[in-house]
């Protein structure tokens, strides 16, 4: 079954480019287009795409549209495609519920990899300085996150890295040769140690601590 994509960008040339790019892929199809945030939400509700490729700085707000789409279409993953190679935008996208972030200067292959990654529930980031995304803007986090990470065992850190990348408990179990129940126990324990409640917070912390690598699909094995 093909990955169904909605392209949301106020520049027609970008949408045409996305249509041409997806047309060359046997497993991806463009099912709808939108020229602003409000239309993106409307088209997402109508077509229920697997992935929305969303520009951030377009009329009616890309960030607000991400939040609305996530509420109206919880199964749809939103991938930000933007000209802003700025860590602050990445933080905002993740906070809004976005699943990935790709700058428009990235190669076509990177965008395609990101689409395939987020549809599997994984996080994909193509940003030149993603690992520096948080400390300059949140010094209070930079002072506390490393000691918190140091509280984790080596196994808990391994589980954390896989969970941040979007792997399911069973997938983590298969990779680490554990039972799914053990993985769930490690996950609950590390979340408690770090004082985290949501996976989005875990992704942010993993980025801050260098567990996710910039410019490479975070779903890599």
Q: What attributes characterize this protein structure?
A:
six-stranded parallel β-sheet; Arc Repressor Mutant, subunit A; alpha/beta; disordered C terminus; 221 residues; Rossmann fold; 10 helices
Write structural notes for this entry.
The chain has a six-stranded parallel β-sheet with strand order 2-1-3-4-5-6, with helices on both faces. The two termini are 23 Å apart. 51% of the residues lie in helices and 14% in strands. By secondary structure, it is α/β, with parallel strands linked by helices. The protein has two domains: 3-128, Response regulator (Rossmann fold, 3-Layer(aba) Sandwich), CATH 3.40.50.2300; 139-208, Winged helix-like DNA-binding domain superfamily/Winged helix DNA-binding domain (Arc Repressor Mutant, subunit A). Mean pLDDT is 82; it is low at 129-145 and 213-221. The chain has helices spanning 12-23, 37-47, 62-72, 87-96, 108-118, 139-150, 154-165, 169-176, 180-194, 199-208; strands at 3-8, 28-34, 51-54, 77-82, 100-103, 124-126. Helix 2 (37-47) runs parallel beside helix 3, helix 7 (154-165) packs across helix 9 (180-194) and helix 7 crosses helix 10. It contains ten helices and six strands; from the N terminus they run βαβαβαβαβαβααααα.
